[in-house]
Write a structure and sequence with these properties.
Belongs to the alphaproteobacteria porin family. Keywords: Ion transport, Membrane, Porin, Signal, Transmembrane, Transport. Residues 1-25 form the signal peptide. InterPro entries: Porin_alphabac (IPR003684). This protein is mostly beta strands. The chain has one domain (3-401): Porin (Beta Barrel), CATH 2.40.160.10. Helices cover 5% and strands 49% of the residues. It contains two helices and 20 strands. The chain has helices spanning 3-18, 243-246; strands spanning 52-54, 60-75, 99-103, 108-117, 120-129, 137-145, 148-154, 179-189, 192-199, 219-226, 230-240, 251-264, 269-279, 300-302, 308-310, 312-323, 328-339, 352-365, 370-383, 388-401. The strands form two sheets. The protein has a 16-stranded antiparallel beta barrel. A two-stranded antiparallel sheet has the order 14-15. The longest helix is centred in the first third of the chain and has 16 residues, at 3-18. The chain starts with a helix and ends with a strand.
């Protein structure tokens, strides 16, 4: 290890150990559960803590919240960006002999209301953060009443309980995720919850061949969860080309299944696992950007015969989490994404064929509003042409809840 890298690590280590996320230092209201006046609550990782107050003379509770988060990165081999993006390895311009960067752009602001009525609670929630690049961008904006949710929120295809607690934004590679516009209905019976949704029909067809996507039908998802232990979900998607602009009239169907498991191993340790398989799932695994970009994963492509084919994809992940005390915890885990892009199309040679992501961290919950930690992350990527690259990063974070 070069001398300057040793100096960089020595400078960042105290940040991670003395001053990221939240943990077992306080009671938890699970994500999606109603806020009770005066009680703490959470909405999706990284968890947001906030207290509520009642508007005098009304049945409406208000909750303002969010957090300020500072992240310090040291990249050994390649600049992986603000959210640790392994696909940055595909671009030689991101290579480095060692680079330090700071950001506070993950910081968030949110606002929630709960209005009690004779037939249940009307809930609204709006949240934004400052990614990418410091611009304020909308994350959540939805209303919910009697089990019906309408607006922008987490896709119904994803799960929380099997996702490990890490400093990296968005969770490990290969875990279904995404914020989408949707209409969803959820039915709960004891520890059982079943939900179904129609979601925004966006997709990415490879630009190779000169075609563009045109989604005609919304995506259909269904999910079953048992408490905070197990969940399984499915999605069906339809892809088609825009015949009016390209002269190509093709369609294909994408599908997928995702499952997560969280098992206690004694009183202080838990095992978590994730599996996602299907075809045309690039969007749901954060592998496809909002617009076609070289070396990114498409949902579908045109083959040599002019037929629209979806990209098969498989993702698996496992992790262990251990609470050393009520305030100190650690996690270690790895995940892998493999996809089946054709190796006989020249334009796909630089695309990712397989991505492996691993991490280990130490997190200190100083109190209910302050947490800090340090995390080692390793990304390894193999291209369709057989070439491979890997990169390591140290991330230290401080998070102030409000």
């Amino acid at each position: 290890m070069k001398y300057n890298k040793v100096i960089a690590l020595a400078a960042m280590l105290p940040v991670g150990l003395t001053a990221v996320a939240t943990s077992q230092a306080f009671d938890v209201v699970p994500a999606g559960q109603p806020v009770v006046t005066g009680e703490p609550s959470r909405v999706g990782p990284p968890w947001n803590h906030r207290s509520t107050f009642n508007i005098p003379g009304t049945n409406t509770d208000l909750a303002f919240g969010g957090y300020a988060k500072f992240d310090a990165f040291y990249d050994f081999d390649a600049d992986l960006g603000e959210v640790t993006e392994p696909l940055n390895l595909l671009n030689p311009a991101n290579e480095t002999d060692g680079r330090t960067s700071f950001t506070a752009n993950e910081s968030r602001l949110n606002f929630r209301t709960h209005t009690r009525t004779d037939r249940g609670t009307v809930t609204t929630f709006v949240e934004g953060h400052f990614l990418p690049g410091g611009s304020f961008n909308l994350r959540h904006a939805y209303g919910e009443y009697m089990g019906v949710l309408a607006g922008k929120s987490w896709t119904n295809f994803m799960h929380f309980h099997g996702t490990p607690r890490i400093l990296k934004l968005g969770g490990p590679i290969g875990y279904a995720t995404g914020l989408v516009n949707q209409v969803r209905y959820t039915h709960r019976a004891g520890p059982n919850a079943f939900s179904i949704s129609l979601e925004e029909p966006s997709s990415l067809i490879s630009p190779i061949g000169g075609v563009e996507s045109e989604t005609e039908l919304p995506h259909l998802t269904a999910r079953y969860q048992y408490g905070q232990t197990f969940g399984i979900s499915g999605v069906v998607r339809q892809f088609s080309t825009n015949e009016a602009t390209t002269g190509v009239d093709e369609s294909a169907t994408g599908y997928g299944v995702a499952a997560q498991l969280a098992l206690p191993l004694g009183s202080a340790t838990s095992f978590k696992a994730n599996a996602t398989v299907g075809s045309g799932l690039g969007r749901y695994l954060s592998m496809a950007p909002a617009a076609p970009v070289a070396a990114r994963t498409p949902d579908a492509y045109l083959d040599a015969n002019g037929s629209l084919e979806t990209v098969d994809l498989r993702a698996f992940g496992v992790s262990l989490e251990h609470n050393w005390t009520s305030n100190w915890s650690s996690g270690i885990g790895t995940s892998r994404v493999s996809q089946s892009l054709p190796d006989d199309i020249a334009g796909f040679q630089g695309h990712a064929d397989r991505i492996q992501y691993s991490f280990v961290n130490l997190i200190w919950d100083v109190n209910q509003r302050l947490s800090t930690g340090i995390e080692y992350q390793h990304s390894d990527i193999k291209r369709v042409n057989g070439e491979s690259d890997d990169a390591s990063r140290i991330q230290a974070s401080v998070q102030f809840q409000f």
